[in-house]
Every structure is written in structure tokens, then in C-alpha cells.
Amino acid sequence: MTLLATLAHADADLTACLARVMAAVLKPGDVVAMEGPVGAGKTHFARAFIRARQGDMAEDVPSPTFTLVQTYEDPMGTEIWHADLYRLTHPDELIELGLDEAMREAVVLIEWPDHGGPLPDPLIMGLEPIADFPELRDVTLAGSEARWGAIARLPAIARLIHRAGWSEARLIPLAGDASSRRYFRLIDDDRSAVLMDAAPGPAGDYVAMTQWLRARGFHAPEILAADQAEGLLLLEDLGDDLVARVLETEPQLGSRIYDRMTDLLVELHRHAPPDFVLRLDGAELARQVGLFAEHYAPAVGAPGKADEVADVIERLHGEIAADAAPVLGLRDFHAENLVWQGDDSMGILDFQDAVAVHPAYDLVSGLQDARRDVAVDIEEAQIARYIAATGVSPERFRAAYALLGAQRGLRIMGIFTRLAQRDGKPRYLAFMPRVWAAIQRDIAHPALAPLAEALAGIPAPTPQIIERIARA
């Protein structure tokens, strides 16, 4: 049993806030054993937890002191059991109550757990009133690191939300990305916000880029509150109209949307990049594409065959792209990270890894999207639109576009392989054929003949190859 986290001097509001945060992450089979004397706030915590899980279905949550067990259901059909074992006379009564089975299939909150005997790997929550301050309590969370380690983040999240005036909000998990970051939407009556948990590590890069973008009129989410040391940010909620979703539901807007994406880059590139971002030059591009040789090539039975790729990319960058003045590249500039707001400026998400790079880099990112097909005529129209708006050399820009597209694609192939084999995230493998097809189009550019030669003999991600990667 490991002490995971503490929440010191918590009043009733902060205790309930922690309950709402915990309600967003617990899943069936999770057991919370609440320890503490009478009046410590165990039932208060359970009531806030259950009502947060139920949302609009929220009902009264009485103490189970006399019934021993009360059961509830959330909108997703998960059962929540609230038990008070103070009057339990023998641990065998757990079976009669059905708690033994519930602890395998439901979220279970137990008061006075010591009256019920051993529990299956519970989260131990201690609530200890503070002498002379009966309205306050110290909260501790303890459990096995393997199962409950992520819970250690929750008290810091609760402190930030409480301090920012959002302690009454419900938290709803939002879909994450390929990184370790996670996101929650906070809903409090008619207002909403987004919490970003960027751990491990502080959130200074995100804050710096947010300030830089907003100072120049770009619609990055406003930072409402922050705990930068903990990597926690409370952000303006830009809504659910991601460009990816709008393209799916209203495909007739495709040309207009991609025009706006290109115009956003044209405007962004009028500003010199800040001096605090990484310079993505030829050497750094070569280093990052090493992921392809490190992960994809060995996984497809071609170890060593991609060893020359990085050197070729660095050399070609010097010949094709090094003369262009670097601009700010948001790096993950694509339909999943842009919010459509009609005639208003597009909302921009996920830019903390911004770099100083060749102007073609983000255009490639948006038009050679790993997650969706972009029509060839749209891609060509946007390249031409950017060239016309900026006055760059068409021949050199197209060659650099092809080079950066190939580099990005090869790096992504390595990342997707690593995500599947190291991190247990195989869903990205389904995007590999699309990425590989874009790489093949890019290396067909005459200027990239040396790269095409370096890639010769490396197998394409066929269904058989993808299955092989997934099984490894």
C-alpha cells in the first residue's frame, strides 16, 4: 500500500470537488474504501460522487447507514454501489448483500470498510478532521501504484478547479490524442471550460505559445487558471466543432475550410517565430526521422535498410529548403486540432510543440493528414494558394513541400509503430496505408530521387504487415 496523494485542509466544497473529479475517472471494478470517524465527510463525498456520475439524472443520495447498501445507475449504465458497513456483524454478510459480485462489475464506495474484511485492491481514502477546525479535513489517497498511480493527479486537479471557482462543475472526459495528455470538459450550469492535464512535466511551453498566439490575434484558448508546476491548465472551451467533424458532416464546406486553413498559415507566417521554440532544421529533421529506422523498419523485417534515410533527408534539406527563412510551425496543424467557428477565426488547439521551420511544414501537416483523405485537387489548390499569397518560388516550394511531407510521413510511421508495440495503442496502425501512400507521392518528386533510393526494399504497410506489427 502506497500513499499516492494528499489534499490538506479541505473544506466541504473542496471535498465534494475531489469527488466530482474522481467521478470522471473511476470505472467498473473500482472500489473506494473510505476511512474516517463519524462526521469526517464520507457520506458527503459519496453523495457528490454519485450525483456527478448521474448528471442530469441525479437523484437524492441518502446515507446507507440503515439499509447498508444503496445502488444507483449513471447514464452509461454503470452501477454505483454506496455501502455503509458500520452495522455489519460478519464479513460473510458482504456476500448476502451482493457486494462481492458488485466489486467486480460496479463502482463501489464503502464507508467503514474495516468492518467487512479484506477488499480486492481498493483505493483507500482517509478523511481525518483537523483539531480545532471541524469544518476542515485532511484527505489521503493510498493504494497499489500499479492500479491507482494515476489517481495521484486528482487532488491537484481539484485544488485548481476549486481555486478557479469551478468546484460545482461536473467533469466529462474528452477524447485524448497520441500523447500522455488528457482532457476534461467542465460543465457548470450554462458555462463550460476544458481542463488539460499535461503531466508529466510543467505546462510552461503551452502557456508561452498561448500568450504569443493570442497577442497576435490568433484564437488559442484563453487560459482561465493554471498550475504550471503540476502541468494543469483550465482553458476556454472552444466547443465541439472540430474541423474534422465539420468535414465529415458537411463535406460541401471542404474547399472553404481548407482555404481558411491556408489563409491562417499565411497570416501566421507573417510573424517572425519566437526565440523560445525549437529550430527544426535539417539536422533536427534527420534526428526525428530516425524513429522510422528505429521502429518501423525492424518491425517489417527490414532492419538496417533505413539507416541512410536520416542522412539523405539532412542533405536534401540543405539543398532544397535551408535558404527559406523559418516561420512558426504549430507542428500538429490538422483537422483534429482546429475548431470551425464559421466566419470567426478558427480556434487553434495543441500547439505546445511549436517549432521554427520551413514554411511548407504546416501546410503539409494539414493537407497530408494521417487521419483522413484530402482530395488531390484540394491539396494542389492550397499549395497554389499559399504560393500566390506569399510570392515564394513555386519550384523550390513544391520540392521542399515534398521533402517535408516525406520526412513527416516517415516519422509518423515510426511513431505509430512505437505506439502499438511499446504503448499498447494499435488503433493508429489503421492510418499507416494512407501515410505510406502520401510518402510515395512525395518521393516521386524528381528532387527526392536519393530518398526514394534510400527507401527501396522497405515493405509497405500491407494488411499482413500491419497485423505483424500489432502482434509484436
Chain-wise SSE layout:
Elements: E1 2-10, H1 12-23, E2 31-35, H2 42-54, E3 69-73, E4 79-84, H3 93-97, H4 99-105, E5 107-111, E6 123-130, E7 133-143, H5 145-148, H6 154-163, E8 170-174, E9 182-188, E10 191-197, H7 204-215, E11 223-227, E12 232-236, H8 243-249, H9 254-268, E13 278-279, H10 282-299, H11 309-320, E14 327-329, E15 338-339, E16 347-348, E17 355-357, H12 360-367, H13 376-390, H14 394-421, H15 432-443, H16 449-455, H17 463-471
Parallel strand pairs: 2-5, 2-6, 4-5, 13-17
Antiparallel strand pairs: 1-7, 3-4, 6-7, 8-9, 9-10, 10-12, 11-12, 14-17, 15-16
Describe it.
InterPro entries: Aminoglycoside_PTrfase, Kinase-like_dom_sf, P-loop_NTPase, T6A_TsaE. Keywords: ATP-binding, Cytoplasm, Magnesium, Metal-binding, Nucleotide-binding, tRNA processing. Pfam families: APH, TsaE. The protein is of the alpha+beta class and 472 residues long. It folds into 3 domains: 163 residues, Rossmann fold (3-Layer(aba) Sandwich), CATH 3.40.50; 64 residues, Phosphorylase Kinase, domain 1; 229 residues, Alpha-Beta Complex (Aminoglycoside 3'-phosphotransferase, Chain: A, domain 2), CATH 3.90.1200.10. The chain is built from 17 helices and 17 strands. The protein has a 7-stranded mixed beta sheet with strand order 1-7-6-2-5-4-3, sandwiched between helices. The chain has a 5-stranded antiparallel beta sheet with strand order 8-9-10-12-11. Helix 14 runs antiparallel to helix 15. The chain is elongated. 43% of the residues are buried.
